[in-house]
Amino acid sequence: MTEHRLFPYLLILSAGVIWGATFSLALIATAKGAHPLALSAWQVVLTGAFFLVICLLWKITLFNPANLRHYLVLALVGITAPNLFYYFAAPHLSAGILAITVSTVPLFTYAIMLVLRYESVIARRMLGIVLGMIAILLLVIPDQGLSSDDASFWILLVLVCAVLYAIENVYISRGIPHRVDIRELLFASNLIASLIQFPLAIYLGVDESWTWLATDAGLAIIGIAIGSGFAYSMFFYTIKSSGPVFASQCAYVVTISGVIWGIMLFAEQHSLWVWISVVVMLLGLVLVNPDDGVESNEINENAAAESSS
Description:
The chain is mostly helical. About 75% of the residues lie in helices and about 0% in strands. It has one domain (about 5-290). The radius of gyration is 19 Å and the shape is globular.
């Protein structure tokens, strides 16, 4: 059955709206002073439990030793490191700035793809990415400025997260065979992340018992875990079907929805610059077409080659 051409857009829009809410939830989770490692450890455990249920219901393989390398890469590059960086930075930055930084993921993804010669130069796609970067400047420069050295450090830290997510995007598309089920990857990578983070938390004396989950911070982490579970499923599927460059445009939706969630949850008010940036971001998203360029053809050819092998 052939998917409707708008289906990839629906996926990244849905995932983006969900992820946009996680920045506000992260502020709630860090407001009470819980250690970032505790927050991340509970998040990966809950997300892993979410995908455990999914895998059991659909009778999906839980863990294949042959795919251990893939699990490790995703657990370290896509989960553990960025989670910790974001939770360390969250108390020092606004939800808006945290969301804004995600919009740099397409730029880094495209740059990595070009360096590795996986992607050709496509003017329309590059223009979409440039518009996304302009949207970031429209948000950051007029409203925030970067005069504080401390703020610059934390912004740099979350930009490192964007680089890690870009690496993860490319690896999922080019390093993991299409035959590996997305749900298996998500369960096993969160399992590995749990096995890394919980022993580390115990060693460092970071202790948040299961009763902590009933607090406001704990409920926020539960929301992040479940929401991220759904969002990751849609996002990973988009990477495998439409390529990492298109899928990374989800970052623009995350930023837009992050602004809107901030208004809804915290009654934040924004200047005209913010709304101009939202329009520019939307234009950038429209300029990226999953049927455009060499990337989609290569993905179809790779899938066909794998199915025939």
